[in-house]
Each structure stands twice: as C-alpha cells, then as structure tokens.
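User: Fold this, then the next.

Assistant: Folding the first:
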Amino acid sequence: NLKFELSFFESLHRRMPKDLRVASVLAHIYTKSGKIDQGLRMDRKLVRLDPDDPTAHYNLACSLCLKGRKADAVKVLRDAIARGYSDFNWMQHDPDLNDLMDYPGFRQLLLDLEIN
C-alpha cells in the first residue's frame, strides 16, 4: 500500500532527515505515487547529502525529465556519468526518461558515449 509506505517513510524522514536510505526510498515512493514535485525535492536533497553518488544524480535527472526540464535532465545525466554512472542500457530504456529519447541533447549525449 503506497499510502501506508508514504506515511511510514515520511515519519522516518522527519526523525532522520539526513538518512540517505530513508530519503532515497521516500523519493522513489513520491515519484511512483505521482508526487513528482516532492520526488524532485527529495532527489535534490540526496544530491546535496551525497554529492559524489552517481545514482543520486541519475535519479535527479529522471525527476527533472518527469517535470519536462529536458536540458537540465541531460546536464545532470552528464554529471551522473562523470561521477561513475555506467548503466547506459537502462538509461536508454528507463521509462522516467522517455521524454528524452528524441531530444537532441540526449541524442548528443549518446553520441558522445558512442552508443545509440
């Protein structure tokens, strides 16, 4: 039940606001339940808490894409890759990034990575 999970992890997050695992799960639940703005805020927080984590940057790019911020999403994807993100196959099939598939900046990113 997403409503229960959301309530549970919001409560945990209030008690442990800097716990990366709690924040990560909460970001995922927000996005899964369609609360994209809250998910984006949580993804931004995760990047602030752990700026070297490539997955945090990747997830932030996904949230930006879901908000229609394509250029920002590609920039953050580049940041994720620079920090070590390397699952390029998933990146090309991730439903959260569907709106980027025909976006020139994303196509250029794939060309720069020599994949497509």
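Now the next one, as you asked:
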Amino acid sequence: IVCISATMLFNLPAVVSLIEALRTEGPRPAPRIVVGGGLFRHAPDLWKEIGADGFGADLRAGIEVMRNVSQEAN
C-alpha cells in the first residue's frame, strides 16, 4: 500500500502523476493507493476521480481504509 497526503490544491497534478506512474511503471502487482490530507478532506470524492483506491479523512480512518484495501487485494 502506498499512502499519499496532500494539503494544497497546487499539489494535485503531482499526486495524479505519482498515481499514474505507480500504475503504469511501478511494481507488479501494482500497489494499492490510499490518499489523505486537507486537499482530499475538502473534496471527498476526488480520490475516486484521480484513480486512488481509498481515502482516509484522518489517521484512524486511513488505517481502516488501508485494512479494507489490503483485504480487497487478497
């Protein structure tokens, strides 16, 4: 699982590029990707639009999302 956090909107293109690189050039099988941070808390469905596998609004939620994403992969 790769976790990516972003707070500022101007970081969104870098997050999208990182997700695309992980999906196309990263290890196989491709890692599951969970995002968090202020950017995603203000736009709760954005994670789906950019191709992440999950979103955690805070640390506890992120841990739970990682557990669920990990189980889905198995």
